[in-house]
Write a structure and sequence with these properties.
Alpha-Beta Plaits, 5-stranded mixed β-sheet, about 20% strand
C-alpha cells in the first residue's frame, strides 16, 4: 500500500530528526552546564578576593601593612588572656620616628610614606610571625611581643634601631635616614591597653628628651 509506505518513511524521518534534536539538546545542555560551572568558579574567586581585600581594609593600615588601632586593640585583649592563662610574659614597644615632620617638609609626603613603609618592613623582617605590629597613628607604631620578657623586648627594639640607622631610604630628592625613640614595658596581668601605652609613652618621652634615637625600657621587670 503506497500510503502505508509513505507513513513509514515519514515516521522514520521524524525519528531521525528527534534523535538529532535530542543529541543537540544534550550537547547544548552539557555546554551550558560547563559554562555555568566556570562562571560560578570565577565569581567565587572574585568574591573571595573582594572579601579578602575588604578584611585587609578593615584590619590593616593600607600603607604599611601593619594592624590598625581597632584590630590591634582586639588582639591585645586576647593576648593578655593568653598570657594570663599560660603564665607567660607579654611586652610592648611604643615607637615614634624622630623628626618625621622634617622629613615630610624637606622631601615631601611621598618620601614620608616611603619611609613609613620601609620602616614597617624592617620591623616585620626582624620579628616573628606571632608578634603584632600596629601603626598607631602618623609616625607612631606599637609592637606587641608574646612570650617575651621586657629585657628581650628591649634587645629586639635595639636590633631594629641598629638596622634602621645603618641603612638609608632612597627617595627622589636623595637619601633619608631613619631614627626613632621607643619605650619598652611589660604588660601587667590586669592592665588595659591604655594603661600599658601610658607607661610606654612616658618612657618614650624620656628617650625623646634624652637626645632621641634611643630606647628606654621598664626597670625591675
Amino acid at each position: 500500500m503506497p500510503e502505508f509506505d509513505l507513513f513509514l518513511v515519514i515516521f522514520k524521518d521524524n525519528d531521525e530528526l528527534y534523535e538529532r534534536l535530542t543529541d543537540r539538546l544534550k550537547q547544548n545542555f552539557a555546554i551550558g552546564l560547563a559554562i555555568t560551572v566556570v562562571v560560578a568558579a570565577i565569581v567565587g574567586i572574585i568574591l573571595k578576593r573582594y572579601y579578602q581585600n575588604l578584611e585587609r581594609l578593615v584590619r590593616f593600615d593600607p600603607l604599611t601593612g601593619a594592624l590598625n588601632r581597632t584590630a590591634f586593640s582586639l588582639l591585645f585583649t586576647q593576648a593578655v588572656k593568653d598570657r594570663n592563662r599560660r603564665k607567660t610574659r607579654l611586652s610592648l614597644v611604643l615607637i615614634d620616628i624622630d623628626d618625621f615632620k622634617r622629613i615630610n617638609d624637606k622631601h615631601g609626603h611621598h618620601a614620608g610614606d616611603l619611609v613609613l613603609k620601609t620602616f614597617a618592613q624592617t620591623i616585620f623582617s626582624l620579628t616573628r610571625e606571632v608578634d603584632a605590629l600596629c601603626r598607631w597613628g602618623g609616625e607612631e607604631f606599637v609592637l606587641l611581643l608574646g612570650d617575651c620578657p621586657v629585657a628581650e623586648a628591649a634587645r629586639i627594639a635595639e636590633k631594629i634601631k641598629n638596622a634602621t640607622t645603618s641603612s638609608k631610604v632612597r627617595v627622589e630628592s636623595g637619601c633619608v635616614s631613619i631614627a626613632f625613640s621607643a619605650g619598652v614595658v611589660e604588660c601587667g596581668a590586669a592592665e588595659t591597653l591604655g594603661q600599658v601605652l601610658e607607661r610606654a609613652d612616658k618612657l618614650m618621652y624620656q628617650a625623646k628628651t634624652g637626645g632621641k634615637n634611643s630606647i628606654v625600657s621598664q626597670v625591675g621587670a
